[in-house]
TrEMBL record:
PANTHER family according to UniProt: HEDGEHOG-INTERACTING PROTEIN (PTHR19328), HIPL1 PROTEIN (PTHR19328:SF13)
Family matches, as Gene3D superfamilies: TolB, C-terminal domain
Pfam families according to UniProt: GSDH
InterPro entries documented for this protein: 6-blade_b-propeller_TolB-like, Glc/Sorbosone_DH, Quinoprot_gluc/sorb_DH_b-prop
Protein's name according to its UniProt entry: Glucose/arabinose dehydrogenase
Ranges for domain Glucose/Sorbosone dehydrogenase: 5-255
Length: 276
């Protein structure tokens, strides 16, 4: 990368997304942390595979606020062919309510890094705001966007993301309400899920659980969730496939020593009666 990737606390190479035309272009997108003059920032870049190495080819968005914790970093290309990027509040909660800040948001970019003309806030990358630390993005077949988010100690969330909407952090969390702010579809209450990657399959969403060391199923119609896979280590991401789910477990270098449950790619065959 053009900048040295920061390894401080929760910083690092936090997101990468491979477009469908990668086999033709060798191009992808990444989100990483770096330090400059004692400050931590994130940037969104395009990268290209060259001789089995990734090379940064262009900076699409830079100087996203960072801190010791809460960097976001999930990236997905939506069904509208736009790049969606989650950013955390950089451990400065009030930034999430500042629509002029790139922190505490879900951002929406054209693939060349420009601002889409139909973004909800004119001349802004901000698609939604009021987020603490969103960690997963996925779409329903109808094109509805859903996101997982880490709460403050507990009150982890799954939200449906609406253009221009305010998701309340740090003003509200859990079942609290405030005019002009969205409440989550579900939240963990006093429990901690530490939800991460999320994917859709056959009418349900499945999301990874770092603290819960497993996989949860979310029914968006009834707004219910259940733990369906457990005791497999810190699950970072999930990908739905035919009759099963791929999951990747996450190392814990920044929070301790890796264990035998870390850095594994798992395939979990799911019986048909559990997928519906």
């Amino acid at each position: 990368m053009e900048k040295e990737i920061s390894e401080e606390a929760e910083a690092g190479l936090l997101g990468i997304v491979i477009p469908e035309d990668f086999s033709d272009t060798n191009e992808a997108y990444a989100y990483y942390s770096y330090q400059e003059e004692g400050e931590t920032y994130q940037r969104v870049v395009s990268i290209e595979e060259q001789d089995d190495n990734w090379v940064e080819t262009a900076v699409l968005l830079d100087e996203i606020p960072g801190g010791s914790f809460h960097h976001g970093g999930r990236m997905e290309i939506g069904p509208d062919d736009k790049l969606y990027v989650t950013t955390g509040d950089a451990s400065i909660p009030e930034l999430a309510q500042d629509r002029d800040s790139l922190a505490g948001n879900i951002l929406r970019l054209n693939l060349d890094g420009t601002i889409p003309e139909d973004n909800p806030i004119e001349n802004s990358y901000v698609f939604s705001y009021g987020h603490r630390n969103p960690q997963g993005l996925a779409w329903s077949p109808e094109g509805e966007l859903f996101a997982t988010e880490h709460g403050n100690q507990a009150h982890d969330e799954v939200n449906q993301i609406l253009p221009g909407a305010n998701y309340g952090w740090p003003v509200i969390e859990g079942d609290e309400t405030e005019d002009g702010m969205e409440v989550p579809l579900i939240h963990s209450g006093d429990e901690t899920w530490a939800p991460s990657g999320i994917d859709h399959y056959e009418g349900n969403f499945y999301f990874a659980s770092l603290r819960g060391e497993g996989l949860r199923k979310f029914d968006p119609v009834n707004e219910t969730e259940e733990l369906i896979i457990y005791d497999v280590g810190r699950v970072r991401d999930v990908l739905a496939a035919e009759n099963g789910l791929y999951m990747i477990t996450n190392n814990t270098d920044g929070r301790g020593d890796p264990t035998e449950d870390d850095d594994r790619l798992l395939f979990i065959p799911i019986p048909e009666n559990q997928l519906h």
